[in-house]
Amino acid sequence: MKKLFACLLVTQLFFISLFSQNSSLPAVDKSPMDMSYYPVNFPILKIQDKVTEPLMARVIYSRPTRGGRAIFGGLVEYGKVWRLGANEATEIEFFKHVRIGGKKITRGRYTLYAICNEKTWTIIVNKDLNTWGSFKYDMSNDVVRVDVPVQKLDTLVEALAMTFEKSATGFNLVIAWENTKVLVPVNF
After folding, report:
1. Can the peptide bond before residue 39 be classed as cis, meaning omega within 30 degrees of 0?
2. Per-10-residue mean pLDDT for the chain, 188 residues long?
3. Residue 79 sits in which domain range?
4. Among candidates 83, 120, 84, 85, which has minimal Cα distance to 101?
5. Residues 152 and 65: beta-carbon distance below 8 Å
6. What local confidence, expressed as pLDDT, does residue 102 receive?
7. Quick check: 109 and 90 in contact, CB under 8 A?
8. Domain count, the chain
9. Selection from 151, 149, 98 nearest residue 120 by Cα
10. In DSSP terms, which residues pair with 161 in a beta bridge?
């Protein structure tokens, strides 16, 4: 009985020390970071030996939720630079040279911003990396700006979502939130 009690005491002390060490860890962010690839699900396809085309792009972004708020024209003000998500500025990485809006973009990492309006968004690819929000956005670091039309959705998208879809000339970066969707064409 004494051995059982001692064993339980040691186990309890172990878990107490384990949990007390983790108390300094950050809480789960309200806008968790996510990542999308083109081709879609590339890492999974790679481990399953089902890759049929090379890795072309990856976008890393934080996913804020709507939470009953008015997003476009409200939380995301029309006519102002937005980081395309929450927290750090959204980053896109191209693993090959691509074209956006007819302009060649060399392979590498970039930040993505948008200037949202009711009927069009200006998508901005910028070379300033590792920045929070759009507070230090510098237009002189822009690589390309392209205007894309806004599409209205019949259903509400609760959390900002980004994915890629194949197109005839490359792929589109699909951005959707609230009742709004835009496609950013990326060509090879």
Report:
1. yes
2. 49 52 78 95 94 96 96 97 95 97 96 98 96 92 98 97 97 98 97
3. 27-187
4. 120
5. no
6. 93
7. no
8. 1
9. 149
10. 176
